[in-house]
Specification:
The complex is a heterodimer of chains A (74) and B (272).
Chain A: H1 15-26, H2 31-37, H3 43-50, H4 56-73
Chain B: E1 2-9, E2 12-18, H1 22-34, E3 38-49, H2 55-64, E4 91-99, E5 105-108, E6 113-114, E7 127-131, E8 136-146, E9 157-170, H3 180-184, E10 190-193, E11 196-199, H4 210-214, E12 220-235, H5 241-271
Antiparallel strand pairs in B: 1-2, 2-12, 3-8, 4-6, 4-8, 5-7, 9-12, 10-11
Helix pairs in contact in B: 1-5
Classes of the chains: A mainly alpha (74), B alpha+beta (272).
């Protein structure tokens, strides 16, 4: 849903790098060069960022609707 | 015993440890992974959470955030005078309160308000949750010192590994400088310079023996020194890597002195 805080395998902090990565990919930069510049050397940490899909934005509108329904019910 | 630091940059430390046995190198590695204490959020009291991120998920994410640790001012809860009940010497309170006044507000680790300005999240850019308009998160978190053997969130290192010091032997009389070993080496250790095959960066060698296998003339031989180790340590940011090594050595020495004191007592008790 959201980027995991740490790498599943080695435990290094990766969450703080996600937003910069996503922004730079949108600007058309090559993922390899971004990961290299972020000093993510091991493939365990690289796959965390590379294979992540941020789904929280898809869930966000539903959470609000469910909340409203709940309040109406009360 | 001899220690040579190759690289000390930010959270990374690379050094060569010479003249010790594997058992000592491995003991040091295991103490660094499992016994060096660091700070992490251990308990979360959620007062209000209307975000799509569930309470347990929120608590889990908070727990994994590495906190800058101050080993001087805090003690482990099991060694504390309060016997782990939670006092200012062993527990630190962090609070978080955020309202979403607009759509898609992200809660960052920098929104955590710490009681102690020294102990704070390693990075302020860690996204914890995302909220839609009108949603709200209010919580209180208790951070404690802990050890990696209890939970990986208390591990002060992400990588902590060693390898034997590689030895590459080149037999000049057999080598024809074909360059096969140079192109086969995945780490780029070898190079042909002029009329000679030379070892460029021996520390990068992973002992894969590709060069040995590909050579048709038996001109390259890979071996290692089992009394010499290249240590690679990467901190999560909780403690500086040099501090991790120092604390690990002290813990190891404490364990050994406890053993030395304990054995005669046990022997005496056995005699009775």
């Amino acid at each position: 849903m959201m980027i995991p805080i740490r790498c599943f395998t080695c435990g290094a902090l990766i969450a703080d790098k996600w937003e910069e990565y996503a922004r730079r990919v949108r600007q058309g930069e090559e993922p390899k060069s971004i990961l290299d510049s972020m000093n993510l050397k091991r493939y365990c940490c690289r796959r965390m960022i590379l294979s992540h899909t941020d789904l929280i934005d898809e869930i966000l509108p539903f959470s609000q609707k469910i909340r409203k329904k709940e309040e109406e019910y009360l | 015993m001899n220690v040579k630091i190759i690289k000390l940059e930010g959270n990374e430390l690379r050094f060569v440890l010479e003249g010790v046995d594997v058992s000592i190198a491995n003991a040091l590695r295991r103490v660094m992974l499992a016994e060096v204490p660091s700070m992490a959020i251990d308990e979360v009291i959620i007062i209000e959470n209307t975000s799509p991120v569930f309470d347990e998920m929120l608590a889990h994410r908070l727990g994994l955030i590495p906190l800058v640790t101050d080993l001087e001012s805090y003690v482990l809860p099991e060694e504390c005078e309060c016997r782990g009940e939670g006092c200012i010497k062993c527990t630190l309170t962090l609070t978080l309160e955020k309202n979403a006044e607009e759509e898609g507000v992200i809660v960052y680790s920098s929104d955590l308000q710490s009681q102690d300005p020294v102990v704070r999240p390693v990075s302020g850019n860690i996204p914890i949750a995302k909220m839609a308009r009108g949603q709200r998160i209010v919580l209180e978190a208790h951070a404690r010192l802990g050890k990696g053997k209890v939970h990986a969130k208390w591990q002060p290192v992400s990588t902590c590994a060693y390898k034997y010091m590689p030895i590459l032997e080149i037999k000049e009389e057999k080598c024809i400088r074909c360059g096969d070993c140079v192109s086969f080496c995945p780490k780029g250790v070898l190079a042909v310079e002029g009329e000679r095959l030379v070892v460029k960066n021996i520390l990068d060698c992973s002992l894969c023996k590709s060069c040995e296998e590909v050579c048709r003339f038996d001109a390259v031989k890979v071996s290692w020194d089992d009394k010499s180790f290249i240590f690679n340590i990467e901190s999560t940011g909780a403690l500086p890597p040099s501090e991790i090594v120092r604390v690990a050595i002290n813990i190891l020495l404490k364990k050994l002195s406890d053993l030395a004191e304990g054995v005669p007592i046990a022997v005496r008790e056995e005699a009775h």
